[in-house]
Amino acid sequence: VRGDGNLQWGSDRPPEHMIDHMVKELEETHERRKKFSRRRQHYRAADIDYINERNRVFNKKIKRAFDPYTVEIRQNLERGTAL
Asked: What percent of the chain has pLDDT over 70?
């Protein structure tokens, strides 16, 4: 124990110049991150067959794997001539 009888917790405050330095560093980090953000590409002409971004990626993988086998079936469904 310190012996001075002071039981206040959190009374040591960092120096003002250190607080200012931390704030400046956080603001610079925020500005740097704003430069690297980019808007995701969205194609208006593309058919929307997904409910969220994760599902869009999943559907893209499925199409890549199974499109050669399902093209005719999909075309028949779109034309209305499917059995």
From this structure: 77
The 3-class SS string of the chain reads: CCCCCCCCCCCCCCCHHHHHHHHHHHHHHHHHHHHHCCCCCCCCCCCCCCCCHHHHHHHHHHHHHHHHHHHHHHHHHHHCCCC
Q: How far apart are the first and last CA of the chain?
A: 86
Q: Report the predicted TM-score, pTM, of the whole model to 2 decimal places.
A: 0.40
Mean pLDDT on 3-11? 64
Q: Is the pLDDT of residue 40 over 50?
A: yes
For the four alpha carbons of 39, 45, 48 and 49, in that order, the dihedral sign comes to negative
